[in-house]
Amino acid sequence: MRVNINVPTDLSEISLRQYQKFLEVQKENDNENFLATKMIEIFCDIDNKNVFQMKAKDIHRITNILADMFEQKPQLINRFTMGGIEYGFIPNLDDMTLGEYVDLDTYISQWDRMEYAMSVLYRPIKESYKHKYTIEEYKAIDQEKMKDMPLSVVFGSMLFFYRLGIDLSRVMTNYLEGGNQTHLAGMDSLRKNGAGISQFTHSLKEILHDLNISLN
User: Fold this and answer.
1) What angle do CA 103, 200, 165 make, to 5 degrees?
2) What is the model's pTM?
3) Residue/partner pairs of 207-210 with CB below 8 Å, 24 or more apart
4) Residues 131, 177: one domain?
5) What is the per-residue pLDDT across 24-72, written as a single tens digit (0 to 9) for each?
6) 13 secondary structure, DSSP code
7) Both 52 and 159 in a single domain?
């Protein structure tokens, strides 16, 4: 039987919902052949019965394509459109409320509830002018729709926070060792743009390592 499928080659073609579904399957079963079929079923959006009718060599080829896709180095995506609504990354991290920070810190390392963290970081854009924009106030409700956001956006924001935490730690270390004004200025700048973010570094490093995402 001939089966026509669309194989995603970019993380933007995968949704957070799909990735969460695959992780749930992966937790319950570590059989490589089974996981290969589930990977194709979930990420290529086809019935499992059709996957089992495919040739073994095609299964191998498609899983290799998907594996290569997950080795991409994601960049921070400031704006994206989903369901006809444009979302923007929180413009000023320094203005984050306590409630936003607590929810972000709580859920950024929980894949089964990652949509809660993403709803803190990305909100519908209210007004926009050139590269600047304002976003709606944070509401800890209706995060379900965030499961449909592109995985490239999720990975990019996670890597951004990890790198920000690392940069902050390096500048603070250099300042303590050198004590000059250049280091002090750099530390002040990072504090202004990423207060408290370094606390996410440890959990994010573990997540990114598990995803096989390069940290360089």
Assistant:
1) 130
2) 0.75
3) 207/109, 207/111, 207/158, 208/158, 208/159, 208/162
4) yes
5) 998 888 888 888 889 899 999 998 888 888 888 888 888 889 888 888 8
6) G
7) no
